Amino acid sequence: MRRNDTVGRRTPAHAAWLACAAVLTLGAPARAQDKPTAPAAAAPAIGSITITSQPTGANVRLEGGQIITGHTPLTIARGLVGPFGVEVWGPRYETWKRHIFLDGASSDSVFARLSPKHIWWAGLRSAVMPGWGQFYSERKPAGWTYISLAAASGSVLVAYQVKYRGRVRQADASYEDLQSATTPADIAAAQADYDTRVIRVDEAKHQRNVAAYVFGTVWAVNFVDAVFFFRGPRPGGLTVAGVVQPESDGVAASLALHTSF
């Protein structure tokens, strides 16, 4: 019997198809591995603001959508956005002020160079108003003392001035009565009344002058005090500063020691 050789025999066409299938099967994993992965999303930038000063250890107040206080050097990394007012000050230094805008992404910095308070500014202020120069040099008890003394002596001066003007008007009216008197009795009575009125005018005038002298003395002593006892910035000391700042995940507190002023 004749054997059929076609069973199990591979033709050239079969071989070609098998080769193509093998190539596709082996190439698929390679193509999957070569496929680039998508880059991870970058974390959003969080801006910060750093505030420094000369001298260091100054008080800081940052006010805008919220209020933050502390002492220099102060760094706040909270992504603050919008307009803010910055105030930096220290004992016996002028207050430094600026307006800034924060975009919430940049790292910004602010440097405040504080100017010492000047003796002649204290004197000028006290020359304008008693006690003002003492408040300027941060001597509040003395400032309140001179304001109170000036107010009291000024009130007394005004009262005596009003009294003096009233008695002058009374004396003028008495003098008119004297001029209109015709009989000897009326003339004598009018003259006696006029003399009394003149004496009372002199008394009121003296009281007014004494009150003016006291008021002027208070003003002058206030000026001398503002200049003579003016206190400028002191040499460096130790400042203990505690700062509490709310954060997105809670509240952060810090304690710092600064040698300042």
Tell me what the structure shows.
With 261 residues, the chain is an alpha+beta fold. The chain folds into two domains: 48-116 and 235-260, Immunoglobulin-like (Sandwich), CATH 2.60.40; 119-228. Helices cover 48% and strands 25% of the residues. The chain is built from five helices and nine strands. It has helices at residues 12-34, 119-128, 132-136, 140-180, 184-228, and strands at 48-54, 59-63, 67-71, 74-76, 81-89, 96-103, 107-113, 237-247, 250-260. It has a four-stranded antiparallel sheet with strand order 3-2-5-6, with no helix packed on it. The chain is rod-shaped, with a radius of gyration of 46 Å.
Count of DSSP H/I helices: 5
Alpha carbon gyration radius: 46 Å
**What structural class is derived from the secondary structure elements?**
alpha+beta
Q: Kindly estimate the percentage of residues that lie in beta strands according to DSSP.
A: 25-35%
The main sheet comes to: 4 strands, antiparallel
Distance between the termini: 121 Å
Q: How many domains is the backbone divided into?
A: 2
Enumerate the strands of the largest sheet in spatial order, edge to edge or round the barrel.
3-2-5-6
Extended strand count: 9
